[in-house]
Design brief:
Elements: H1 22-29, E1 34-39, H2 46-59, E2 64-68, H3 69-74, H4 84-103, E3 107-111, H5 117-127, E4 131-137, H6 140-146, H7 151-156, E5 178-181, H8 187-200
Parallel strand pairs: 1-3, 1-4, 2-3, 4-5
Helix pairs in contact: 2-8, 4-5
This protein binds adenosine-5'-diphosphate and magnesium ion.
Magnesium ion (MG) binds next to helix 2.
Length: about 210
């Protein structure tokens, strides 16, 4: 088990493994764990897609849960803002929480812009093989046209500083496990592509 040494303050702590294996949990759940890490511009469809995939997986009996941006900022990360350091810490904590969910045997879907490649790559390192990066690929113009939360309009008026895609960079993934064209494909088509990815990775066990 690799742990991130640089961030740890406490000394005299020892990792303690349990006796229930990943296989034990997979047999009970009917599937292996996975972390579907959605990344993309605001309005690209991360939340919509994560919820739709969650519904589809739940309907087939999977243990599945969504971690979504604003929800996590209400609680776990309520002490974080939008400075560079806080954005990085936001994503670091999400990665660690997703790892715990995966250790518990679940399929977890994370829906955060997560614009920095380095932050996503750290989550990939922490989580390991279960990590599947999914790019909600959608042109900025389409996201801005949708503007489901009215944030682009506010960012254009200068009311939101460092808004991803407008006044802050978005680093698209170079080699995501999957890129879904949320700008041109229907929601159902995108959901099918994602469940297809899970099937091709042998996440589902035959019961
Ligand atoms: N294929 C698609 N996948 C996801 N969302 C889509 C798709 N096509 C259209 N949409 C719409 O795009 C918007 C995406 O908003 P949202 O999911 O809140 O984005 P994000 O969470 O990435 O900020 C929603 O209004 C959704 O209905
Ligand atoms: Mg969202």
């Amino acid at each position: 088990m690799t742990r991130m040494k640089e961030e740890r303050k406490a000394e005299n702590i020892t990792w303690h493994d349990g006796t229930i294996t990943i296989e034990d949990r997979a047999r009970r759940n009917g599937h292996y764990p996975a972390v579907l890490w959605f990344t993309g511009l605001s309005g690209s469809g991360k939340s919509t897609l994560a919820r739709a995939v969650e519904e589809a997986l739940f309907a087939r009996g999977c243990q599945v849960y969504v971690l979504d941006g604003d929800n996590v900022r209400h609680g776990l990360n309520s002490n974080l803002g939008f400075s560079d350091a806080d954005r990085a810490e936001n994503i670091r904590r999400i990665g660690e929480v997703a790892k715990l969910f995966a250790d518990a045997g679940m399929i977890v879907l994370t829906a955060f812009i997560s614009p920095c490649r380095a932050d996503r790559d750290r989550a990939r390192r922490v989580i390991g093989d279960a990590f599947l990066e999914i790019h909600a690929a959608c042109d900025l113009a389409v996201c801005e046209e949708r503007d489901p939360k009215g944030l682009y309009a506010r960012a254009r008026r200068g009311e939101i500083a460092e808004f991803t895609g407008i006044s802050a960079p978005y680093e698209a993934p170079e080699k995501p496990e999957l890129s879904v064209n949320t700008g041109h494909r229907s929601l159902d088509e995108c959901v099918e592509e994602i469940t297809g990815l899970l099937a091709s990775r042998n996440i589902f066990l035959d019961r």
